[in-house]
Design brief:
It is a single chain. The chain folds into three domains: 183 residues, Alpha-Beta Complex (Spore Coat Polysaccharide Biosynthesis Protein SpsA, Chain A); 173 residues, Rossmann fold; 180 residues, Rossmann fold (3-Layer(aba) Sandwich). It has 21 helices and 24 strands. The radius of gyration is 29 Å and the shape is elongated. The chain starts with a strand and ends with a helix.
Length: 595
């Protein structure tokens, strides 16, 4: 029985792996990451070749090839890339007849197709080839390819197979007798479809609709709530589970390598939560794949999911119009990976639908619709009571410890805007607090959080900000009532330091921050028009009205605390993951998408 190895970001579909079994092969998968290469070499040492030898290779492409050869030297077998399917004829290969099996490219007979390589275990000629390739010192890819070709064809006892166009949907690798050994289902200009067995259609109900949602998890638990999009994935999964759908998280393989089981369990706090690795996405037969916490524009994955009739949904939570504008005009948002701005894959839309949370639809619905060439639908916003449970776990305390507590008449105010976009930054809230302070000295201190000069996200001009915030302009500064702070966990900061939050947004009129705070009794003064009945609302950019609302909060909030909490929890109910109206709306969205 021949061992087959693939190295990729994802396994082939289960139907293809079954093909390997049918022809008598053992399938082995290695997730394509340098860490895994080095771990394998370290765990399977060869006296004549050390990990430090491998580390000195400069080219990533050459590193991958050397690792493939190293693996084959240690284990023996055949490496095939993601687009190759072997046939039963590989059982006729006799590994004693050659030291190395390689394939001459159909595109250029002076080059090799390196998607198929084979050898037997402990083949000395392969070890020599590993040495030779390791010692190539070349950063020019075109020259490197030529050097690799010469090293391989000059290996002692190499068997060079050839490719031929025999079938319409693939390129075949044949032996000297013309027997097809492998079929290569790939072309730069089109997607070759793998030969999958037809699956009989079934009537779709909640229980047999399988849904995957991407989720980022973190090595340090406190990082999890640094971005609301991660919470969005959790709460959406809760809702879909409450609706009866077979729902899974899709987690990055690399993230899973860095996280302990304990920290993973904390972040996946609901016992019903299940997950699969991103590398396994093609093996699970998802009916719907929702990209939320992270997305991937890999064309192979996209095409194969479409081939398997998986519906792909982009669940969009960010203000792309403003973020893209700030990237292009001001070179900001440097933490976001370099974008190719590819909205179309192989002349096909990346998504079957885009689902937009309500606060993003006004500025983005038609922006996305034109760019992505697909239907864009506004979907309900989802929150969960478990948000407080998650925060208490993250902060290593009881949920009651996070509740608002009456401390004294003079209040400490926090401004918690992230300050990475014009959408949510501190200045409007500062003006509100300043105007209030001129008439009400009950403000003991103002904390302006998330201000730092060494941000990896945006180039904040801290010097100019400090010049703007001077004692001639602001009484809060003159009276030494104000300070700028770095980033803190919101509820930890509020429970230990501050009493009131003043917020302002532009183009983002709904936010988990308001729900977290209002549920726990903290006064949150905000202008989010989609939840006017949560917290204390003021209109738009009316800083004067906002300062009057803040003044009222400073005088009266503590006297009305119980009523405030009851009202807020009642009003937040329509956003909860177990709200029956919300569940019904998402059920309709799912069935409309599949039909």
């Amino acid at each position: 029985m021949i061992d087959i190895i693939s190295i990729s970001k994802f396994k082939p579909p289960q139907g293809i792996i079954d093909e390997y079994t049918n022809i008598g092969g053992n399938y082995n998968f290695i997730y394509d990451i340098l860490h895994n290469y080095e771990c394998f070499i370290n765990d399977n040492p060869i006296n004549e070749y050390k990990l430090n030898d491998f580390k000195k290779i400069n080219s990533d492409f050459l590193k991958r090839l050397v690792f493939i050869l190293y693996y084959l030297y240690v284990k023996g077998g055949i490496y095939i890339d993601l687009h190759v399917v072997p046939t039963v004829n590989i059982n006729n290969l006799n590994f004693n007849d050659f030291s190395l099996l390689s394939v001459v490219s159909i595109l250029n007979d002076k080059n090799l197709f390196l998607g198929i390589i084979g050898c037997k275990k402990n083949e000395s000629n392969i070890l020599q080839l590993i040495y030779d390739l390791t010692n190539i010192d070349c950063n020019d890819n075109s020259l490197l390819t030529s050097l690799i070709y010469n090293k391989i064809i000059n290996t002692n006892n190499v068997l060079l197979l050839h490719e031929k166009n025999i079938f319409d949907n693939c390129v075949s690798t044949v032996n000297i007798n013309g027997d097809v050994l492998f079929n290569h289902y790939y072309d730069d200009n089109k997607f070759y479809k793998f030969p999958l067995k037809n699956i009989e259609p079934t009537v779709k109900t909640e229980k047999n609709i399988k849904i995957g949602i991407t989720l980022n998890v973190f090595k340090e638990v406190k990082q999890f709530c640094s971005n609301g999009i991660n919470q969005n994935s959790l709460y959406l999964c809760e809702l879909l589970l409450n609706a009866g759908f077979d729902t899974y998280f899709i987690l990055s393989d690399t993230n899973l390598m860095d996280i302990t089981d304990e920290n993973l369990k904390i972040q996946l706090y609901d016992d019903r939560f299940k997950f699969v690795k991103y590398s396994d996405i093609l093996t699970h037969g998802f009916d719907i794949f929702i990209t939320l916490s992270f997305s991937d524009s890999n064309i192979y994955v996209h095409n194969y999911l479409k081939y398997m009739n998986t519906k792909i949904v982009g669940y969009f939570c960010g203000n792309s119009y403003i973020i893209d504008t700030e990237k292009i005009l001001y070179n900001q948002h440097k933490n976001i990976q370099e974008e190719s701005f590819q909205f179309y894959n192989n002349n096909k839309p990346r998504y079957d639908e885009i689902w937009s949370i309500p606060q993003m639809s006004d500025l983005n619905l038609h922006y996305w619709k034109i760019l992505y060439r697909c239907n864009v639908t506004t979907v309900p916003f989802v929150w969960s009571r478990n948000a407080i449970k998650l925060h208490s776990i993250i902060n290593n305390c009881h949920e009651n410890d996070l509740l608002y507590k009456i401390k004294n008449t003079e209040k400490k105010i926090a401004i918690l805007e992230p300050n990475i976009s014009i959408m949510k930054w501190a200045l409007p809230a500062i003006l509100i607090c300043e105007n209030c302070y001129r008439n009400n000295k009950n403000i003991k201190h103002l904390y302006i959080n998330n201000i730092t000069s060494d941000s990896k996200i945006v180039d904040l001009n801290l010097n100019k900000f400090n010049k703007f915030m001077n004692k001639n302009n602001f009484d809060l500064i003159k009276d030494k009532k104000c300070s700028i702070e770095s980033r803190y966990n919101t509820l930890e900061f509020m429970s230990k330091i501050a009493d009131v939050v003043v917020s302002h947004q532009w183009g983002n009129p709904l936010n988990y921050l308001y729900f977290d705070l209002a549920w726990l009794g903290y006064p949150i003064v905000h202008n989010a028009s989609l939840c006017k009945d949560v917290g204390y609302y003021y209109e738009g950019f009316d800083y004067t009205q906002a300062s009057e609302v803040l003044n009222d909060v400073l005088h009266n909030h503590d006297h009305n605390l119980k009523k405030y909490i009851l009202n807020n929890r009642k009003n937040i109910d329509r956003f909860l993951s177990d709200n029956i109206v919300l569940i019904a709306k998402y059920k309709q969205l799912i069935f409309n998408l599949l039909n």
